[in-house]
């Protein structure tokens, strides 16, 4: 049985974002606290006792306090059920939470060598001593099984793969193993397989478009957690919140002919959740037209703390 915990479903900044006065952020501060959402992170477990985080968001401390599955075991003075952290990239949204994981508990960081070199180059991450916190390189298209603290397998197989999107700088160098040319445009997605049941879960917090190759990969999955940054490509510009389109940031829109909802229809995916939702996205409002359309198409926007058992 694979357990998937949504620790946070918001894009960078969260909902509400500290410096944002848009409608959703204002409502989240005042009359609709249920709109509040922390920045995107997910936890996985095959045994219910040991957990692996996908990305360590800047809100990690708050997420750990709010999530009883991740509390220290009763009767132990120092303990954490978190056995490892898998990093999809080296950006602030994915790595800042690591700084809340100092204090000497052992765990393993799994990340592309390019991401590990970002951690090494920023001395602030030395608060995680390499004695306690192992750093394990992972590679595109090479499956790995995160380990439990006693060295045995976790029962979860993870395959990092390239997704159409903004080019991660550490993938640009074609001399690197798994490196790709600029023209392809790569972002890391994760295919997660429960070895006991052979069920598949996909995590794609960033994806610029759904290629036929990606469709074939996702077909028949038990669960897809997918990029829900914006409802429409130009919504941030239309709302006066910025000059960037979703595509400029490597994010597909939820709506439209080439959007996520349309592109992932009819692929036999059991459950579809949007993640990495920006506070400009009107689908966050439970009574909006956009939310209705999304739900009618079989999608959900998860609340923080939602647990899915597969
Ligand atoms: Zn806002």
SS field, number of helical segments: 8
- Main pleated-sheet profile: 7 strands, mixed
Assign the structural class, choosing from mainly alpha, mainly beta, alpha/beta, alpha+beta, or little secondary structure: alpha/beta
Q: Can you give the helix content as a percent range?
A: 10-25%
Bound molecules: zinc ion
Largest sheet: spatial strand order: 6-5-4-3-2-1-13
Please mark out the parts with pLDDT under 50 across 5 or more consecutive residues, or reply none. Answer: 176-185
Strand runs, count = 13
How would you characterize the overall build of this protein?
This protein is α/β, with parallel strands linked by helices. The chain contains 8 helices and 13 strands. Residues 176-185 have low confidence and may be disordered. It is globular and about 50 Å long. Strands 6-5-4-3-2-1-13 form a 7-stranded mixed sheet. 16% of the residues lie in helices and 22% in strands. It binds zinc ion. Zinc ion (ZN) binds at residues 17, 20, 22, 24-25, 279.
Short recap of the structure:
This protein has 310 residues and is an alpha/beta fold.
